[in-house]
């Protein structure tokens, strides 16, 4: 068994790679802009208090191949599988986020559409055991009102019209899923999609949701957090390490019951989110932008399907926020040292 992780030194990808290292599963890490030291740092900080585990992480890192890869270039993609013919599984996370897509639709389509199809072709051409890719809660549209009751948790079978969408990114994810199911039905490919909500944690470096890092990391470092929406804005949040665990478990399971899965998470208002931070950092400073009533995202996701499939329930919001704060502080201590 060997994994390829595309976008493997990005915010979620690096956590997936560390998860595989912890399982001692060989991995090839591919990214257009490799951030190798960042990925190594996540692993070493996580296990710094356990010398035996730290040595294991060092060994896994030394055995890992890091490669530059543009997934929109089919020849480059195919060459990876020719060079590493023992790759059996792929977790595909190489994707341009919403702001990047809106800034350059041509590049967005090249990476997000053609790049995804290139990866689907690899599943067939190289007879891979499984490809799991990141879809998104944005496929459900920009407003929970499309589903009626505000307390309703959106299920995988729910959908809305294009008129209810805001992000080109989300519509691209819809087409990714549609195309994947063609490959499953017509070519026998083993592909699964997960639909994360807001993924929080330390270390986001780009994208339009940097606040999903700064809400807790800034107070952890004695800085003010600014959330660009109302205190009453409700969203669904999940910790990045839990998303990594979900990706790996879904990739490893021999047989799946479904194609698409909600990651789930905790549905809270922005004020409730910051009150969680305050329970850990009583002097946390933060402010909201009351001129923006809500984010262009749905409020609640049902994760029953995924929990039953892989036997994993994400940690509580407070546990996740506490982990993020601890990591941010440990990283700062290392920088200062």
From TrEMBL:
Chain ranges of the NAD-dependent epimerase/dehydratase domain: 4-253
UniProt xrefs under InterPro entries: Epimerase_deHydtase, NAD(P)-bd_dom_sf
Alphabetical keyword list: Carbohydrate metabolism, NADP
Classification via PANTHER family: ADP-L-GLYCERO-D-MANNO-HEPTOSE-6-EPIMERASE (PTHR43103:SF3), NUCLEOSIDE-DIPHOSPHATE-SUGAR EPIMERASE (PTHR43103)
Protein name (record): NAD(P)-dependent oxidoreductase
């Amino acid at each position: 068994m060997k994994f390829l992780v595309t976008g493997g030194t990005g915010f979620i990808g690096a956590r997936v790679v560390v998860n595989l290292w912890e399982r001692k599963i060989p991995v090839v890490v591919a990214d257009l802009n490799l951030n190798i030291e960042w990925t190594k740092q996540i692993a070493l900080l996580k296990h710094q208090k356990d010398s035996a585990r730290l040595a294991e992480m060092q060994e896994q890192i030394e055995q890992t191949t890091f490669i530059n890869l543009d997934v929109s270039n089919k020849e480059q993609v195919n060459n990876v599988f020719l060079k590493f013919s023992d790759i059996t599984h792929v977790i595909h996370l190489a994707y341009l986020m919403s702001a990047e897509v809106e800034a350059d639709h041509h590049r967005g389509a090249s990476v997000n559409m053609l790049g995804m199809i290139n990866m689907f072709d690899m599943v067939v051409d190289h007879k891979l055991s499984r490809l799991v890719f990141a879809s998104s809660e944005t496929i459900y549209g920009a407003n929970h009102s499309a589903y009626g009751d505000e307390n309703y948790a959106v299920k995988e079978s729910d959908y809305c019209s294009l008129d209810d969408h805001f992000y080109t990114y989300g519509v691209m994810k819809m087409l990714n899923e549609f195309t994947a199911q063609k490959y499953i039905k017509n070519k026998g490919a083993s592909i699964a999609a997960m639909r994360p909500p807001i993924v929080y944690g330390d270390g986001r470096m780009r994208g339009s949701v940097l606040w999903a890092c700064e809400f807790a990391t800034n107070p952890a470092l004695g800085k003010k957090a600014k959330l660009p929406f109302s205190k009453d804005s409700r969203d669904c949040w999940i910790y990045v390490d839990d998303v990594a665990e979900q990706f790996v478990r879904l990739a490893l399971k021999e047989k799946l019951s479904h194609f698409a899965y909600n990651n789930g998470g905790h549905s809270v208002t922005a004020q409730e989110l910051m009150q969680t931070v305050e329970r850990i950092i009583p002097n946390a400073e933060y402010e909201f932008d009351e001129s923006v009533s809500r984010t262009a995202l749905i409020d609640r996701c049902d994760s029953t399907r995924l929990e039953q499939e892989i036997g994993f329930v994400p940690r509580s919001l407070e546990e996740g926020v506490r982990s993020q704060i601890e990591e941010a502080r440990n990283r700062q201590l290392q920088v200062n040292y």
